[in-house]
Write a structure and sequence with these properties.
Blueprint lengths: L1 H25 L5 H15 L6 E4 L5 E4 L6 E3 L2 H10 L5 E5 L19 E3 L3 H7 L3 E5 L4 H9 L4 E4 L5 H14 L3 H22 L10 E3 L12 H8 L5 H4 L10 H7 L3 E3 L11 H9 L8 H4 L3 E2 L3 H4 L6 H12 L6
Parallel strand pairs: 3-4, 3-6, 4-5, 6-7, 8-9, 9-10
Antiparallel strand pairs: 1-2
Helix pairs in contact: 1-2, 4-5, 6-7, 7-14
Pfam family, one: Peripla_BP_2
Protein name: ABC transporter substrate-binding protein
Organism: Ruminiclostridium papyrosolvens C7
């Protein structure tokens, strides 16, 4: 009888302590029963993902994930940036080396010590024995085949060419890694950032919008169907190359610069060729007498914006919209 009373007392004590702990962590005056109900709801929300899950990747291949992926390898930098905000860091087995380069990566500090660094090498990836590998549609087909022949699950992702496609990738990746709610949170954050810019420029007419060109170290620019074109339009600027109907990344001749006479020229802040930098490219343009009357040259509006923003194909791409809008219309962002 005494033993039964001791057991009953212990059970009551545990229930009492649990009730107090639940109330404290919620910082509310809710009863223990409400806390328990909330916990039950949370558990249900985290177990709604159904595996095995079959989805079609960007190459039209049907990929089946047998269970929630817990050991993920990501080669595209944009996907690495998304995963760092979507999954527990312990689930990231390896990422591209570019994740550590702060000039191109938005996760350089956060990624320190998270997973290994990997390149597009089938043997090295197989050695990690991941249960999921993310690659983009530009990946080496031979590497993809070797991985799949080794029974490694590979999911090919579309390389976004605008911010809406970035959102699409976030939704898809969120579904694959069973973190759809977090993916939606990131999309909501993106939309808030975009709205903060659009609210300031919504009353501008086309004749009030500034014209802008980008000019790469390879003397190319960005036309229709590029991330740059989408970003500058959202920032309230006009890309005359796109307006002229030129697609992709056409060569930007001196005659084209004169014809378009942009108010702003954007140069990269990061270069593949280490012999070239912002200052050398800037001086090349300014030193050309034929370009002396270009508005961007006369008004000293040859600029760069953070390359990790403007080159991003993840949620961080919206920061480039903000960067450019603030340069073009500083008065609207005071």
């Amino acid at each position: 009888m005494k033993r039964n009373l001791k057991i009953l007392s212990l059970i009551l004590a545990v229930i009492f302590i649990t009730g107090i702990f639940g109330a404290c962590t919620n910082n509310t005056n809710q009863q223990a029963s409400e806390t328990t109900q909330a916990i039950d709801t949370s558990v249900k929300n985290t177990t709604t993902e159904k595996f095995p899950l079959t989805l079609e990747d960007s190459k039209g291949t049907k990929v089946t994930l047998k269970a929630k992926p817990e050991k993920i390898v990501s080669l595209p930098l944009g996907t690495c940036e998304m995963l760092m905000s979507l999954v527990d860091k312990s689930r990231i087995a390896a990422m591209t080396y570019y994740a550590d380069d702060a000039k191109v990566s938005n996760i350089a500090d956060e990624a320190k010590g998270i997973g290994k660094r990997i390149e597009s090498n089938a043997e090295k990836i197989i050695a990690l024995q991941p249960d999921l590998v993310f690659m983009d549609n530009l990946a080496d087909a031979n590497v993809v085949k070797q991985l799949r022949d080794a029974n490694i699950t590979v999911f090919m992702l579309n390389t976004p060419s605008n911010i809406e496609q970035v959102k699409d990738n976030l939704k898809l990746i969120g579904k694959i890694v069973a973190e759809e709610a977090k993916a939606q949170d990131l999309i909501d954050w993106m939309e808030q950032k975009l709205k903060a810019v659009s609210d300031r420029i919504e009353l501008m007419t086309d004749d009030q919008k500034q014209t802008v060109l980008d000019y790469s170290e390879m003397s190319t620019t960005s036309g229709k169907g590029t991330n740059f074109d989408d970003i500058v339009k959202r920032a309230g600027l006009i890309n005359p190359v796109s307006k002229d109907g030129l697609e992709g990344w056409p060569e930007l001749s001196k005659e084209m610069i004169i014809k378009y006479n942009p108010q702003i020229i954007i140069l990269p802040s990061w270069y593949y060729d280490t012999k070239v930098n912002f200052y050398t490219l800037n001086e090349k343009i300014k030193g050309d007498k034929a370009l002396a009357n270009i508005k961007a040259v006369k008004n000293n509006k040859i600029i760069s914006v953070p390359y990790n923003h403007i080159s991003s194909v993840s949620q961080y791409s919206v920061l480039a919209v903000e960067d450019i809008a603030k340069v073009a219309y500083p008065g609207l962002f005071k």
